[in-house]
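Supplementary Note 3. Input sequence used for the single-chain structure prediction.
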Amino acid sequence: MNSQFAFLGNLKLGNPTNKPPTKSKSKSKTKSKSKSSTKGSKSKSTATRSVRRAPRNNTITNGNNTGGNGLNEEQNAMMDVINKSEATNFNAMIRECVKNKEIKQVHRQVKPPVFATKEEYDNSFESVISFRKRFTDGELKEIDTIVFNENNDGFFAAATAYHAIAELGGKITKIVKSKPLPMWDPARALDRGCKALFVDIDWSEFTLRKILEHCSFAIVLDDHLPKMKHNNFYSSWIESKGKNEHCASAVTWKFFYPKVAVPTVISYIDSSDAKLFLPWVSYTHMFTEAMGFRYTHSRDPRMYARIQSGEIFEKLWEIIQQSNINDLITFGNYYFQVTEALKDQIAANAVIATFQGYRVGVLNFRSPALTKKVGRQICTNLAGKIDFAVLWAWEYNANAYGITLIDDHKTGKVDLRELGDRLKVIGGHPKGGGGRRNEYNLYWPKNDRHDIWELFQ
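The predicted structure, written as discrete structure tokens, is reproduced below.
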């Protein structure tokens, strides 16, 4: 380390010797190690030795650094910089740089857009608006619990509901993530008699009936194939007959704000989640990366507290209000580069196997941020050799195997929803499973009758 900055680690500003500073009569700036130096040089040398004798636990504090502290001119200048500086706000810097840039993706259209214009898109929520009319504002105001799926769709649906219920004068007292959640025993997660809103959930009929027994009032806003009929259950999949289903966050927005156009951020999530290929959104994968790493996939212990306090939903509400999300796409670009490198390394370990009569690429791997990416990369690596990819791992919180079935989102050789629904019934795990034609997640039990290996026959 440069000797003139070595003092910074254990220096307390002020007069280290607690004595009046020695004034140098010499104006010379020449540094000399000779004992025959001028009086001014001796004075400076004495001050330097005093600094080096300062106790180790002394710390840098704000103060007047100009003279009287035993430091030379260059050292004083350095201390001024340190004391006056603030932590660099990289978010603000990037936001300022890109706010006026045109970030437009050249679409390689895999499929034609489900909705060609924003007007057509915004007018496609008639069924959920009609469903909303079944409930009074007073009933919605009384909702005290939100249960949501821990992904982008679930988080933003919960944020919308949290804010809307507050605007109605209500108060959410309990917020619960659906994973890990022992929904076969709701008493461990929900207060008996609660009035709950469930967004983006896909549970078995057994679990849903348990919930209804536990809640005095319940509404479900979802985009999966429902496992049972109930007047307070809404599924965009049923309403659209599986053609142009909207994701849960878009459904939740129109449920609470039927007269307000779907915000840009929600349309990004809807286009990505429901595969709508909306022509006015760009780089949805980068937006998804940014939200996942910063919020929805976070396993930071502090995130639990932010969820329970509602702080995270207030932050997501601010993001929902953004009409310009150039900054989020830019952040996502860098996350994307990292995950792309990782998924290539992981997907290379997949092997070909037989799964329920199909040729698949299989890998013992699951991760919130990477499972989908790795699965699709496996499909690319083994194109022409497999029908789809299977990723699995033991999940201790569910006491079951978590299994993901996923294809390349292009060919769709196999209806994975149909296959997954059949396996879910055979396995009979309480948490069930759900998904779409090109992607399905389910739980498979390990007991006297079942194990993961029976599926690979």
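The chain has three domains: 3-84, 113-336, 348-455. DSSP finds 17 helices and eleven strands in the chain.
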